[in-house]
Design a protein that fits this description.
The chain is α+β, with helices and mostly antiparallel strands and 123 residues long. It has two helices and eight strands; from the N terminus they run E-H-E-E-E-E-H-E-E-E. The model has no long low-confidence stretch (mean pLDDT 89).
């Protein structure tokens, strides 16, 4: 995973399957529904093999103001959260495991913007 670069983004939707079809028809992206408890989650393969690009997901909107979210790939979520909170950020979603052995967390920056953190499993 790229260190400290955006590696994933999520697009919230009222009807994730319908919006996934829209992006598939529009850009040729492929989607696969992934089992995530309590959340409809469609993982998107938007990047072509061996070419630049970021993969995405269309997710069930959790609230009307839910923004799209970028995830930054980091070596240690715990270290980044410690550094971020020491400089005025707050944690919106503590570190949690997700399918594939990864972990994610969500932080609110000092001016109220959300961003996600994604950590690959250690070997």
């Amino acid at each position: 995973m790229a260190k400290n670069q955006v590696v994933h983004y999520e697009i919230p939707a009222e009807q994730p399957e319908t919006l996934s079809k829209f992006y598939s028809d529009l850009f040729g992206w492929t989607f696969q529904k992934i089992p995530v408890p309590g959340l409809e989650f469609w993982l998107c393969n938007a990047a072509e093999a061996n070419s630049p690009g970021i993969n995405a997901a269309v997710i069930q909107r959790q609230n009307p103001q839910q923004p799209s979210m970028n995830y930054v790939g980091v070596e240690s979520i715990d270290a980044i959260i410690e550094k971020a909170t020491a400089t005025g950020a707050t944690v919106a979603l503590p570190k949690m495991p997700v399918p594939g052995g990864r972990a994610i967390a969500v932080v609110i920056d000092p001016q109220g913007n959300l961003f996600g953190l994604m950590e690959e499993p250690t070997q």
